[in-house]
Structure formats: C-alpha cells, structure tokens
Amino acid sequence: MNANGTLVRVDGVEKVFHRGSEEIHVLRDLRLEVPAGEFLALMGPSGSGKSTLLNLIGGLDRPSRGTVTVGGEQTGAMSDRHLAAWRARHIGFVFQLYNLLPVLTAERNVELPLLLTHLSRAERRKHVETALAVVGLSHRAKHYPRTLSGGEQQRVGIARAIVTDPTLLLCDEPTGDLDRKSGDEVLDLLQALNREHGKTVIMVTHDPHASARASRTVYLNKGQLSDRPVD
Amino acid sequence: MSFEHLIWSNLKRKKLRTLLTVLSVTIAFVLFGLLSSIKQALTGGVSLEGANRLVVQHKVSIIQLLPVSYKERMERIPGVAAATHQTWFGGYYQDRKYFFMQSPVVPEEFLGMHPELILPPEQKQVWLRTRTGAIVGRKTAERFHWKLGDRVPIQTPIWAKGDGSAAWDFDIVGIFDGKEKTDDTMSLFFHYDYFDEARGRGKGEVGWFTVRVKDPAQAAAVAKLVDGEFENSPEETKTEPEGAFLQAWVKQIGNIALMTAAILGAVFFTILLVTGNTMSQAVRERTGELGVLKAIGFTNGRVLALVLAESCLLAALGGGLGLGAACILVPALAKPLSAMLPMFFFPVRDLVAGSGICLGLGVASGLFPALQATRLRVADALRRM
Questions:
Q1: Contact predicate B209/B55, CB 8 Å
Q2: pLDDT band at B32 (very low <50, low <70, confident <90, very high)
Q3: Chain A residues whose beta carbon lies within 8 Å of the beta carbon of residue B302
Q4: Is residue A10 included in any domain, yes or no?
Q5: Is A67 helix (H, G, I), strand (E, B) or coil?
Q6: Is the separation of the CB atoms in A60 and A7 below 8 Å?
Q7: Domain that holds residue A124
Q8: Cβ separation of A93 and B296 shorter than 8 Å?
Q9: Is residue A163 part of a domain?
Q10: Beta bridge pairs of residue A219
Q11: For chain A, what is the domain count?
C-alpha cells in the first residue's frame, strides 16, 4: 500500500491477445486505482475484459504494456516463481464455479493454500477451523464438494480464499452460478469480510443486484473504464 | 493434510483406471522377475569365470583334443602361474534328459585353479586317494538325491571304456559348494588318471587347458605367448579369457541376454505407453484444478513434482507388487523346475535393477504430462474447470 492508501494501481495497461496473425486488443490504456479497504464492483458486458483485468491484478497474467502495482509491488516485473509466492501471500481468489478439488473434503480444500506455508499441522488446522467458522460451515468440514449445495461450495471457496489472510480478495462472478438466496448469502459474506475484517475486495459481476453491495462500481467496455454504465 | 495425501487422493479419483494401470505394471514386473530368473538359470555358470584365468582350446574347435604334454610347455611360458586340464565327458545319469556337466581333472591342480569351489578338507583327502572318487556340486547332488558314499553310474556316448562299455561308475566322495550363489554347483569332477587308463581311445589327450596368469593385467599378452608356443604344430591353440570361453558355450543355446532384453524392452515400452497415457489423461482431466493450484500459489516446480510423484507412485505400486510377487513366485517354481533349471532364482542385482527400472518408468511416463502441466497458462486452465 502506498502513502495515499492506494492498494491497487493499474497504470496505462494494455492487453493484446494473438489469434494467428490477428491481434485482439482486450484492454486499452487502462487506469484504475483501488484504495485499501474498498469493495469495488467491476461490471461490463461479456467479452469486455473484466476477467482479463482481474487476472492482471491477481498476477495470473501479465500486461502487454503498462504496469500493475499491488501493495507497492509491480507484478509484471516478478519472475513466475516469485509471482506464485506473491499470490500465495497476498491474493485470495473466488471463482464463479467454486473450483474446489472434488477429491478433497471441504476442510482439506480450505487447507490447500496453507500447504505452501511453514505452518505446523496443528496451526493449519486452527486456521482452517477459523476460516470455515467465518463462512459458517464448520459443521460441513468433512463433506466432499459433491455433497454440498452450490452456495455452500462457494462459501468453502471463500474460506479457501481467506485462510491465508490475504490483503486482496479477487472475486470473478462469485454469484454467477447461484440462485438469489445463495447469492445473497455469499454477498453478505463478502460484505462482512470487507467491513468487519478490512479486506479489499474487487468483484467482477454483471449482476446489478450484486454490484449494489459494493462501495464503488466501475464499468468496462471495449477495453476501457468509465464510472457510468454502458448503454 | 500433506502433499502425499493430495497425491494419493488424485490416484483414487478413478479407482478402476488406477487399478488396471497398476495391474499392467505389476504383470510387467512379474514377467521381469521370471525372465531374469530364467536368464540366471541358463547363464549362471558363466560367473565361474576368473579374471586371472585363460582357457586354451584347439584352434579348430573345442571338439578337437590337445596333447596332455602341452601342460608342461605352458607352465614354462613367462607370466603363467599354473595350468591344468579338463575334458568334456558328455554323460548323463539314468536317462538322456538327466544331462549335466562332467569332466575328468587332476584333483589337486583343479582345486588350486578354482578356489571359488568349497570342498571340506576331509572330503578332499578322500577324493585324492580314491581313484574312482568324484566330487559333485550341491545342486546336482540335491537334484539326484546323491549322498557321500553313493556309487553312481554315468553313461557317456563319447567315451567308451576299453571293454566297449559306455557306463562309468563313480564313488561320490565330496559335495562342493560355491563361494557365491551364482557359482556353478551343477558339475561333477573325477580323476583324470582313472579316465585316461580306462578309456578306449584318445589316451594322453585332453579337451582344454585352464591357465592361471600371474598378473591379470597381462592376460592378453600371455594368451598371445601361449598361442605362439604352439604355432605351426599339428595342434595349434586358441587362448581366450575364461569368461569369453564360457560365453561361447552359452551362445550355443542362443543369445539369451539379447533375447531377454528384447522381450523386456517390448514389455516395458508397452507399459510405458499405458502408464504415460493414463497420466496424460489424468492431467488433461485436471487442467482446471491444476490452474487453481497455480492460482493459489503453487509454483511450476511444485506442480511438476506433484504430477511426477503421482506417476512414480503408480509405477512404484505396480512395480513393488510385481517384484514382490516375483520374489514369492520364483522360489515356488524353483522346486518343480529344479531338474530342468537347477540355478533358477531371482538374483538380488536384478531385484535392485528392477527397482531402478520401476523408478525410471515412473519418471519417464510422468515427465511429459508433468511438463504439459507446468506449461499451462493459469488463466486458460481456469476456464477449463
């Protein structure tokens, strides 16, 4: 985080994909600042580059031009190995389709990121219990993903994202695959994490109901950001 | 949870597929154990070779005989420590199918030349003074249930006695063992004097000589000197290391090592394809999950290790079961096969080699899928969940 409280700074970012000889400009000269502690909703039509921007902020991809700085560290300059370690420490990902490993129980899915730390088995267990308690699923710890509802699976996904106590939560359409009730529960949880635990949240969504929970909404269209919805 | 748990959980994901792959690897390693044991049984005697021993035979072929008087001339050649002779007797016990190696020897010279054969001193003494005495290897003694004091008739189609009889009686006065498990304990040795006096033809002639050199490093030079000594004589010689001589015997029943290697090669190549295919399929199915692991901070190295560990575990399970089964199966088969293959056992060196091959199979079958997994772009992989 820099002196003026900005956690994420996206500066002049362009992202170009190549399909054969064709160049596809997904993001163009994009600028965005996200202060620490903000709950930002990122909206836009399909193919507007929302997920690409989220991937760049989360260090899953690198910009073709420009810089992405998170917590004072420029992700584009890091080696793959350094970037992986940085993600493990600072970023929590929540995916639309939960992306849990079907062969592991809920508690073991949550424990996965902790395998990369130096915590003892007992310490890891304690962290897992806390994370599952925060999402209200302590009683489902021993269950496999296939025996959980969509809402419960997403809450396990959120527990996995917060178990390492990351600075930034990046959520890619976290309610996109849920019914309204389950979606609301997930949004309540994200809001609580933002307000009560001080987590900075960036959430990609195209659901206005979801974006209404955020403290600020920005709109992405044809690779560029604006503060107003696109017609 | 640990990484081991994660690897094990992944293997349990498709239980039937894992089971079938493990079974195919198991069968390959059982086959490996059996073929190694057969190879051992057929070539076991070759380990009798000594690094400091040369074999001198007739230049034309081993069937042609050499004068026994060559011995003194050989012993006068610089670099030769001692020389002794043997002759192919070609006999069998009771029935032609009970064939084994016999040879007339000069007992003291022979035992001095072959320190790897262990004969109790009191049995040695009895052998030295018993003209019709013979010593026999432990394997053959057990095979025919011979014991000390037995008189055994051996028939030979090669050496008829002076009276025309082809049956030779020997008194078993000693049973020898080998220093190593691989030493030949299937042969029977008896007095050359008794043989030479009783045979109807070829008196004063022997099959081949074994020469011990003073310095093994000079063996090739000594071999040349020996052949030079008898050059232009009616019976010219061919001298070679004992190992090469014994290998030539083995080659008479085909190049066993090559055949075994060819069969094993074909089996392992097939298994490699099966296991490699299983691993590739497993990685393809889990592309999205590998993307998640990378997203939450697993490095490429860790993903590579996870996939490789999985394939190695698969190979280790199959290989371990296969080698274990071979260790049980080979001793169980050894008894019924003892008449045909007395040296049938699974050598420890092949067991160690099998374990190494098992690890190699795991790495080779997992490497390509593991590299595929490391090359995945996280963003692309996550879309394939």
A1: yes
A2: confident
A3: 116
A4: no
A5: strand
A6: no
A7: 36-65+79-226
A8: yes
A9: yes
A10: A43, A226
A11: 1
